[in-house]
Amino acid sequence: MSSKSTRVLALHGDSDPLIQDVAASSLGPFSIQWLNSAQALACAVGADDVHAAVLTVQQAESLGLALERCALNAAVVLLADPSEGATDIAAADLKRWLQLGVQDILTPHDCLSGGLARRLCAALERHSLACEMRRAYATDLGTGLPHEQQLIEHMSHLMALREREPAPMAVLVLRVEGLATAEARVGAQAAAVLRRKLAVRLRAGVRASDVVAALDNQLFGVLLASVASPDQAARVGRKLLSSLHAPFKVGGHDLTVSTALGIGQYPQDGAQPAVLLHHAISVATSARAEGRAGFANFGEGVAPRAANEE
């Protein structure tokens, strides 16, 4: 282990003695931070210096959907209820927890003689490898932009911060039509260049703190890390649509695309990353793409609006 302290979150409960033993383990150093509620833990686990969380099964159940987000940001290890004296974990329960991203689930017997500290170290290594694998596949090679899963991770991190300091944010999804036409007209290589130029314009149209992602060949996502009002997201959307309306010079050809935009506002359109993003995708998919761009907010009718309309 590194000499740097590994920060572990825990909730007070029947397993306190087992978790306290981790702090004294020679496998550390471990720094245990005790919290009093599942909500406090869900907020704290989004911090950059949090490495792991140790919870009982009952405490994990109380986290609900937030458990999956916690497991994305830290190595989560579960402890079977020590009062039940369980010696084995049902296969169905183990599968369910692993699908939610939990790194390990231990019985009281597994925790004897420093077992929890050893299994926690292994969980930290697995979580680190999983993060590296996600990063390795996190970039759309055609544009250099992060892909959907990476965008969701950015959203997850921001939402964890928003639970402590509430503030609006928004995600935009732009649907671009014309790439297939460009490929048929000037070839696959030129169409790939066009897609890269689309990414460059989108990236240039937002702040450094915002995230632009390639969701698929014709869908782009933009996470606005903070917005002063819902109108600000619409203004940014109109700006981006207008920038994509201008022709692209590719291989001596002027190529144009048509676009549509979906806007998802946090928290009213979704309080979970995937929910918010998929709402915006749904709107962008159903909105009519126009040469001068149309857009709609989630929950509204799909009413096209000109890019230069104020």
Could you characterize the architecture of this molecule?
The structure is a single chain. Strand 7 and strand 8 (219-224) form a beta hairpin. The chain has helices spanning 16-23, 38-44, 57-63, 66-73, 91-99, 115-136, 148-164, 179-186, 188-204, 230-245, 273-286; strands at residues 6-11, 30-35, 52-56, 75-79, 104-106, 169-177, 211-214, 219-224, 248-250, 253-255, 258-266, 294-297. By secondary structure, it is of the alpha/beta class. Mean pLDDT is 84; it is low at 292-310. Helices cover 43% and strands 20% of the residues. Strands 2-1-3-4-5 form a five-stranded parallel β-sheet, sandwiched between helices. The chain is elongated and about 70 Å long. The chain starts with 5 loop residues before the first strand and ends in a 13-residue tail after the last strand. The longest helix is centred in the middle third of the chain and has 22 residues, at 115-136. Helix 8 packs across helix 9 (188-204). It contains eleven helices and twelve strands.
Low-confidence stretches: 292-310
Which structural category fits the helices and strands?
alpha/beta
Largest sheet: 5 strands, parallel
Write down how many β-strands occur, each being a DSSP E stretch of 2 or more residues.
Answer: 12
Q: Could you tell me the mean pLDDT?
A: 84
Strand order of the largest sheet: 2-1-3-4-5
Order of helices and strands: EHEHEHHEHEHHEHHEEHEEEHE
Termini Cα gap: 57 Å
Tell me the helix content. 40-55%
Strand content: 15-25%
Radius of gyration: 23 Å
